[in-house]
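Note to self: keep these together.
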Amino acid sequence: MAISDVFRPKRRSSDREVRLKAVKGITDQPILLEIAKADSDRRVCKEAVQRLTDPKMLEEVACTASHEVVRRLAVKRIDDQAILADLARTAAVWSVR
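Structure:
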């Protein structure tokens, strides 16, 4: 753990295990969205996706996440047929289609 980790939220720790544990306690959807799209460790991102409940946020992850496996997981979690149809037609990332 870096000294700077003392002053930042656990979800932003330099230690991925600390971030992973922190994500398991987060319910705030916008924070989970941020983590799912941009964390450097795909396990942390996947855990954030598992905790997301908003289909529109899952759609955003499917289109913009930094890890392909995370984008695919987001698509699998979407249960809104209109969103899935829109992704199939318009997603810029081919693997999401």
